[in-house]
Amino acid sequence: MVFELLRDCFTPEGPTSGFDLMFDLCTHIAQGRVFASTAYLLGASCLLALEKPSSDIRPIPVGEILYRLVARTLGFQFQEALADHFSPLQFGVAMRGGCETIIHGLRATLDLHPDWVVLQVDIQKAFNIVSWEALFCELRSAIGSLDQLFPFVRSFYARRSPLYFSHCSHEDEVSLFSPESGTRQGDPLGSSLFALAHLRALRTVASEHPLCLFPSLADDIHIVGPPEDVMPTFHTLEGHLSAVGLIVQPTKCVAWSPSGLPSSLSLPPGFSLPFEGL
């Protein structure tokens, strides 16, 4: 039925072209001006379960094409505004060469301060559990044009859109999930929304610990600073991340220093201690 409607939209008959109709439809979706029942269906996704090397499962939702089209367009439209909003803490979203920027920045910093320590902080199932409330608060308080994203995000994240999972061994068996937190990793805006949701936590920690740096790449947060400051900063970060629903995973965290880690550094159990850098 959807195919037939789209096909009819692009027929040359009638006073309105198919492009105009599609543009109007996508504009309504982008502005959040759709019925709740429509948003429920447009936000639905088929769930893929990808096996990680650790034998864990990474859930990847594949959303409806109209939602992905609008979300992708909004991502391009707000790319510059997002990059400005995230600077100088988040380099993994809306910024080209963010990974390289972090690498060169870390090298330059450690050349100047070879005794400093780098903590690479990993968050457990980060995209799946971050708080929607934190996301909405960040968008509503955003300065500039970013608050224009709020109606769209609210339409699809303020209510539970279904995730459908088809079992390989039983093709007729379909499970239905209704998430209450997190951003969809198959969402073109998913990384940006996740970064927005925990940005306030990063900013708060940065203001409370001004001697440390916090270059982040999506859900990989780095704490760079003097040995006596990094662990208090780490514990502060844990607290602020938990306030937005995020849990630090020590077994995937890393600590390193060019001069070697000082014996006075009290690391939580499970931290990796590489010899040749991060």
Topology:
Layout: H1 2-9, H2 18-30, H3 36-42, E1 45-51, E2 57-63, H4 65-77, H5 79-86, H6 98-112, E3 117-124, H7 126-129, H8 132-141, H9 150-157, E4 163-166, E5 174-177, H10 190-208, E6 216-217, E7 220-225, H11 227-242, E8 247-248, E9 254-256
Parallel strand pairs: 1-4
Antiparallel strand pairs: 1-2, 3-7, 3-8, 3-9, 4-5, 6-7
Protein name: Reverse transcriptase domain-containing protein
Domain Reverse transcriptase: 31-278
Which stretches are poorly predicted, pLDDT < 50 over at least 5 residues?
none
What is the terminal-to-terminal distance?
52 Å
Radius of gyration: 22 Å
Task: Indicate the percent of residues in helices.
Answer: 40-55%
Count the beta strands: 9
Backbone structural class? alpha+beta
From N to C, what is the helix and strand string? Answer: HHHEEHHHEHHHEEHEEHEE
User: What overall form do the CA principal axes indicate?
Assistant: elongated
β-strand amount = 15-25%
Determine the number of helices (DSSP H or I, runs of at least 4 residues).
11
Question: What do the pLDDT scores average to?
Answer: 86
* Major pleated sheet: 5 strands, antiparallel
Q: What labels would you give this structure?
A:
single chain, 278 residues, alpha+beta, 4-stranded mixed β-sheet, 9 strands, 15% strand, elongated, Reverse transcriptase domain-containing protein, RT_dom
Characterization of the model:
- It comes from Riccia fluitans.
- This is Reverse transcriptase domain-containing protein.
- A hairpin with a 7-residue loop joins strand 4 (163-166) and strand 5.
- Helix content is 44%, strand content 15%.
- The strands form two sheets. Strands 3, 6, 7, 8 and 9 form a five-stranded antiparallel sheet that branches. It has a four-stranded mixed sheet with strand order 2-1-4-5.
- It starts with a helix and ends in a 22-residue tail after the last strand.
- The protein is elongated, with a radius of gyration of 22 Å.
- The chain contains eleven helices and nine strands.
- The chain is of the alpha+beta class and 278 residues long.
- The relative contact order is 0.15.
- Helix 8 (132-141) runs antiparallel to helix 9 and helix 8 (132-141) packs across helix 10 (190-208).
